[in-house]
Amino acid sequence: MSHVVVFVEHESGLPLETSQQTLTLAATLDEVCAVTVGACQVGGVARHLEIDHPLLSDYAPEAIGEALAQVVRSESPTAMLAAGTERGNEVMSHVAALLDLPLAANVTEVRPTGESWEVTRMRWGGSLLEEAALSAPVKLATVAPHSIAADPMTGVTEAEPFTPQLPESLERTRVVERVTVSEGITLTTAPVVVSGGRGVGSSEGFGILEELAGLLGGAVGCSRVVTNNGWRPHSDQVGQTGTRVAPNLYIACGISGAIQHWVGMMASKNVLAINNDPEAPMVTKADYAVIGDLHPVLEAVVDEVKRRRGL
Ligand SMILES: Cc1cc2nc3c(=O)[nH]c(=O)nc-3n(C[C@H](O)[C@H](O)[C@H](O)COP(=O)(O)OP(=O)(O)OC[C@H]3O[C@@H](n4cnc5c(N)ncnc54)[C@H](O)[C@@H]3O)c2cc1C
Fold first, then answer.
1. How far is CA 111 from the centre of its chain?
2. Cα gap 269→226, rounded to integer Å
3. In the structure, how many helices (H) and strands (E) does the chain have?
4. E strands within 25-135?
5. For residue 265, what is the enclosing H or E element?
6. Are 108 and 145 a contacting pair, CB within 8 Å?
7. Which pLDDT value is given to residue 181?
8. Cβ contacts of 11-18, under 8 Å, gap ≥ 24
9. Which residues, listed in sequence order, are joined to residue 217 by a DSSP beta bridge?
10. 271 Cα to the center of ligand 1, angstroms
């Protein structure tokens, strides 16, 4: 019997919304076999394989990828799908590499045409939709989060155990520690984000951005060049491979406005660019712009805010 396997991510024993969306898409293609790592209630599927292994007590992408590759070898599905979350994409990349199969990441639509699939893929943070053909003995794809509505789960399918053979060496990539993000104003909730790019010049250069963010009750963000240079942690990065923000005011200091950065802050209500290049995309797209060296400009802004507050 042909079937599609769906890797279901879950929390507290219930599928994530994005996995439920993936199950919904899979059900339009074929009979569905869900596979979970650890116990989870999954309904509305023909079968449910529950992977159990001591190496998989916490997130371990390489080992989960190997376990899923073993599911493909033993179940011979026509396709394996997962949600296009960071974890879904990471795990499925391992599956694709292990099985030497192509992977279509972040699909929004699947149209089977005989042996192959036509897929629409979301690229560049959603600013581009790509039409592609996926031709492989087992199709591997991840489903772009929130690109389709999830059908509600019906009933609960009894789980069958699946025990993979995992060498100890796969333990090398796993979660070893969880750090709680500090409470208070965060990048995603801050009404003002003061963000810096290459133009800031160094990690010390961010001092003035932090001062302004503090005065405005905001948070500091940055571009990928900044995290690549080690000036700020990745948790501060805004963009396609960072955090998406939508503050009332986004102050982009020395950031050129590459599309991968823009998609992370384009939902901001107002954008102020401070840049010495009047032609920079961030300047041409911003609501307000100051053309000049960001350091004296920010010092002047900080002085003025302090003066008006009598500080
Ligand atoms: C797959 C992929 C994913 C990516 N994801 C992200 C992402 O999530 N987030 C992200 O930010 N990028 C991302 N990037 C990188 C992105 O393409 C750009 O390279 C990056 O955003 C550029 O960073 P920047 O604007 O700081 O640097 P630059 O592009 O070098 O721009 C620096 C700007 O600072 C200005 N400047 C220089 N000195 C001063 C000064 N003294 N005063 C005022 N202005 C000054 C310059 O005129 C210029 O406009 C990604 C790229 C790829 C390929």
1. 25
2. 24
3. 8, 16
4. 31-37, 47-51, 79-83, 103-113, 116-123, 128-134
5. helix 259-265
6. no
7. 59
8. 13/39, 13/40, 13/41, 14/40, 14/41, 15/40, 15/41, 15/42, 15/153, 16/83, 16/85, 17/146, 17/150, 18/83, 18/84, 18/85, 18/88, 18/143, 18/145, 18/146
9. none
10. 16
Global pTM value: 0.62
Output the CA–CA distances (angstroms, integers) from residue 84 to 21, 225, 268, in the order listed.
10, 25, 24
Q: What is the Å distance from ligand 1's center to 281 Cα?
A: 10
Coarse DSSP helix, strand, coil percentages of the chain, rounded to the nearest 5 percent:
35, 30, 40
Q: Is there a contact between 24 and 148 (Cβ–Cβ < 8 Å)?
A: yes
Query: Which atom of ligand 1 sits closest to the CA of residue 274?
Result: 43
Confidence of residue 182 (pLDDT cuts 50, 70, 90): low
How many whole angstroms from 255 Cα to the centroid of ligand 1?
A: 5
Nearest CA to ligand 1 atom 26: 197
Q: What is the pLDDT of residue 12?
A: 85
Mutate to test the pocket of ligand 1, among 202, 261, 265, 271 (most ligand atoms within 8 A of CB): 261
Q: Which residues line ligand 1 (CB under 6 A)?
A: 197-199, 223-225, 237-242, 254-256, 258, 260-261, 264, 274-277, 280, 293-294
Ligand 1 atom having least distance to the Cα of 238: 9
Q: Residue 199 is encoded by which pair of tokens?
A: 């133009």
pLDDT tens readout for residues 60-92: 999 999 999 999 999 999 999 999 999 999 999
CA of 259 to the centre of ligand 1 (A): 9
- Which atom from ligand 1 is nearest to the alpha carbon of 282? 49
**By alpha-carbon position, which residue is closest to atom 48 of ligand 1?**
256
pLDDT in tens, 271-290: 999 999 999 999 999 999 99
SS3 304: helix
